[in-house]
Amino acid sequence: MRLNHFTEIDGRQLRFGYTTGTCAALAAAAAARMLLTGVAPETVSLVTPKGIPVTVDTVAPELRDDAAVCGVRKDAGDDPDVTDGLVVVATVRRTAGPGISIDGGEGVGRVTRPGLDQPVGAAAINSGPRRMIVRELVQVAAEHGYGGGWSVVIAVPGGDTVAARTFNSELGVVGGLSIIGTSGIVEPMSSRAILDTIRTELKVIRSEGAETVVLTPGNYGEAYVRSHPHLCTWPRVKCSNHIGEAVDAAVGLRFSGVIVAGHVGKMVKLAGGVMDTHSRVADCRLEMVALHAALVGAESRVVRELLGCATVDAALDALGDALRPAVMDAMVERMELYLRRRVRERVPVGALVFSHLYGTLGLGRTAGGLLGDTEKR
User: Fold this and answer.
1) Which terminus of the chain has fewer Cβ atoms in its 10 Å neighbourhood, N or C?
2) Any bridge partners for residue 17, and if so which?
3) 0.85 cut: is pTM over it?
């Protein structure tokens, strides 16, 4: 069953889809309901974290002696996605004790390197989909007066073959796909549409009298800015991967100061002069961490370890408390150098970098000056 939710991009109506995480939650809910009622549902529904309801047909529901099995077919809408059309299958069993265990089966990868959403050895089912599965099973249990626990195994037949066309193995997920999706929805997007939106938001903010603005790549950065004691009052605009284009737009609108604030996993690319941070454009994250570690005196074995990390978060852990501050200071200084070059020093543009575990990791000299000037006004 198709999701009838659309957006207009470049004059075309494009349809939204739903993530593998949504499929897993839908399949688990259908299997749990079948296990408690003995009736195989033809359709199953939920409301995604984004607030968009999804109703789908079930695929091959089956009631066994001690389990129920049900599948949901992935629909990526009009967004290109290698997982489009795959069936996500949930096998659900009742357990005597309380709680909900979630694991991966055929076609779902295993985490083999630290720094990913799940610990080493766990099924590559991210925390967002896990929360969705738990929410749906709790609701099914409440509807039917069931007080026991659940065991859930998520599988994607053929997922191991499709995973070979992704970067999963390089990141440290082997044997299959990752079950992902924060919002539960796949939104078709174009670069032109995103850039038009960024420029429009900046223009509105400037027309309202704002002189300074925070640019942040996404939801993580926006949440951090909202909680920052000095930045929370600044107007902010999400710029996705288009940091350079967003900075250009802010300069063109004659803002007197710009701070680019974001999670280290995205911002670290700026230290290499990469202003479009999409992975298809460039990925120098670990190289940047390793380079700056070497520049501040890290031993060669540490540099090699950093290059072998799966994520920037894992690299931060590997740096340790002694090296981390110096490396981050060096990288943030480099980020601001490239930002100054980008705007040809016409406007002060600073960088602020954070992570979920360590909080603020680096505040550039220009960013610190802008914040200081704001506080004096």
Assistant:
1) C
2) 186
3) no
